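Example 3.
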Amino acid sequence: MSREPVTLTIDGREITVPAGTLVIRAAERLGIEIPRFCDHPFLAPAGACRQCYVEIEGQAKLVTSCTTRVAPDMAVRTQVTSELVRRAQAANLEFLLLNHPLDCPVCDRGGECPLQDQALAFGPGESRYIEPKRTYRKPIPLSPLVNLDRERCVLCARCTRFCDEISGDRFIELYDRGAGERVSIAAGEDFRSPFSGNTIQICPVGALTATPYRFVARPFDLSSTDSTCAHCAAGCAIRVDVRRGKVVRVLARDDVEVNDAWICDKGRFAFAAPDRPERVTTPLVRARGLEPASFQEVLGEIAARCRGGRVGILVGGRLADEDAYALSKLARTVLGTNDLDHRRAFHGGRAELLAAARPMSVTYRDVEEAAAILVVGLDAEQELPILHLRIRKAARRGARVFVLHARRTRLHDLGEHLLVRPGHEAFALERIREALAAGGDGPEARIAAALAEAGERAVVLAGPRLAEHPLAADVALGLAERVGARFALCARRAGDRGALRAGVHPTLLPGGRRVTDDVERGQVEAVWGPIPAEPGRDAMGILRAAAGRELDVLYLVGVDPLRDLPDPALARRALANAGYTVIQGLELGELEPYADAFLPAAAAAERDGRVTTWEGRPRPLRAARAPLGLSRPDWEIFVGLAEALGADLGLGSLEAIRAEAEPLLAPREVPVRSSAWGAAGPPQWIEERVLFTYPLLVDEGRLLEGATELKAALEEEPFAEIHREDAEALGVADGGWVRVRTSAGDAVVRARVGETVAPGAVFVPFNQPGLPVAELLAGRFTVGVHLEPAAEPAAEEVA
Amino acid sequence: MSERRPRVDLSSAVGAVASGMATILKQVFRRDVTEPYPHVIVPPPPRSHIGRHRLNRHENGLEKCIGCELCAFACPADAIWVEGAENDPEHPVSPGERYAKDYQINYLRCIMCGLCVEACPTRALTLTSYYELSFTSREEAIWTKEQLLEPPPPLGTDPVDREG
């Protein structure tokens, strides 16, 4: 197809568009709205609803403009100039409405329904159909999240095409033909896709509706705010709908640079956590018990403890960029410590330094346009779902996808998997590097050949699994540099990249400047003033110091070390032995007995700010409602604490923070060899069986609290995924019970036996109901494990 | 400048005064039209819809209201609050899938225009002729679903009684 632009006329107006453009898109560019149902800019043309008829000069019959591509000198007439088209569109609407139940008053789509709107704008106004309408049983649940009302369906196939083309989770399909045609799902099957909510949003009628939004509000009840999803580092554009101060719905917004038009079900349905009764919205200070107090009192109390004391700060993955910057400055310049960390696992390598210093090394668009993609140590569907969709999009456009991971991921239908034991990724990457020169015909050689062929159109995406092993990410980076591929170290949580960039890190200052490097530290000191020169402790080091009574104040910001970090026994000792424990967050949870002071923070939907995507792209957060109670954005609390300590951070507003941070966070070059930094020795070849764990998309995380339907739809019971060889050697049957014993503890869980996990590795999801896997860990997210068949546990013992 | 006096026809002047006085005399002896409300309460015309709303029920006792919020959408004064919910199929509140979990009308806002009644797709909401709306607090001016489902009391009942 030639790429020359094409000139055509629509309703007598001339327009030039790229070759291959659909007539309906060309009309949009002229501002001519052709009615449509099945057409969607991110789905392939279908021509299913027949609503977008136009007349093309020289063609005997009307054509559907959503399937017809432009041609030179084409003369198109739409309903604006053609009476024939007008009549055809009205007739088609009358036809689509024949069996439509017109129960708009009880339909969730009423008021924002493309069928309502277009019937009003283009329809005949009256129907000649007087016979009884076809009826079906009113909504049938496709899953705990999605309801299907077949009476309302106009068979546009948007939902089924989304599942075929975008998510690949082909649960729903059009069954039968003619008047009996309908969307359906296999008997007994659940629409168990983490992207199922998108089908609801793109349904042009009320056939697919969301259970959590069922009968909750009408469009005119809602005040909507454009914001960014803060559940993971994907950074999806969302719209937050609030009714009377309560978030009732989240929708995806279109953004071709980030999320196209999609969001995952976690982003869509997990919004209730800030409204739970467990939320604490008043500052608390321990007197006889934890008692409500004013911010001034509590900050004054904390300041008194911090003055001259040794402070260690642990941070979760929830902070916005401005919060992270304010905290980094507070810790270094006012509290005089480098003991702060936001990480759950510890790279300390050059890849991390690059991620801190240089944003946007890989973008979504780079992924989409790549010729070869190597995903290492990342379960994209569960950890960065929208990146997963981009990888799928790239694969459909011809990219070759390889996944190097300890467990099979949902890319298995499009990409080649190389299952390696957790911790052995670096060895596999080394083998790929060797195969670049040596060739061969194993999977490593195939990956090497594909990467080398793609050259700069190759992308290497390194995920959180590589963070476990000091050099693994650097090995991946080395491989990428060797073939000229683009490389990104993908953070999982929304605040991770921003915190790393801002220097919420024991050895890195803003922009990846090293604390230990006098020149780099001097660049920050020029703005901030003096900074301690000795490197700080990492998260586990801070916990060990607190456990050893070396810290006067343990400051926990949006993190629960009992649940989030891989050594709860150490965390318990640290909390018990810390001189003074300050909790800042949405709620206290299990930390209540340890808290000496509590500072209530505003939730992401309650404040302005920015979050940084895994790419390094800043995305806006906007307040959809006021913070509950006395809670405040984290940065305001940090500024307040500095004031209580008699210091002025000079960060009085978000604008002031951004203005100060901008030059420090500008992309900078990183020395090729980073000295005195990182090298913690080569990874170890592990012979024993290892348990590894990472969080699945829907788990018992705090921000998922209250999302009942989402959990019912997607949360899994705890399980241990075991390779068939191991299971046979141990005598464990698929679906049987297995006892998992580590040096830290043991648990009995159901076994899943298959070839979906590397031999010698056992996968247990991180935080499933009834099994906080952290209790089995001893300082890392992989741990040596002993397995044995077990009897079914008694009811209360069930993991 | 000479002033021209109008010529007065004496006989017609006397007639005019007499007819004026006759009107006054007629009114003096006519029955009083002022209603001595609240001592005497005159029932409004039988089909008048001048008073507060009522939520109606079907003959089988189910509520006609389906919680669709069209009344709230039509309301120019934003006086109506509706929250929908799903019917329990075993114990439905209204026919069909949806019912009104909450329904409130704020009579400090309501302007009695009746657009809500016209918008109602199920004839669940109608106006009655009960016009005795007086309140002593803002809370009292917000009528709840339970209150609106009750038929209005006879005019002249102590307004406090409707709380029961």
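The domain at 53-163 of chain B is CATH 3.30.70.3270 (Alpha-Beta Plaits). The CA atoms of residues 77 and 111 of chain B lie 7 Å apart.
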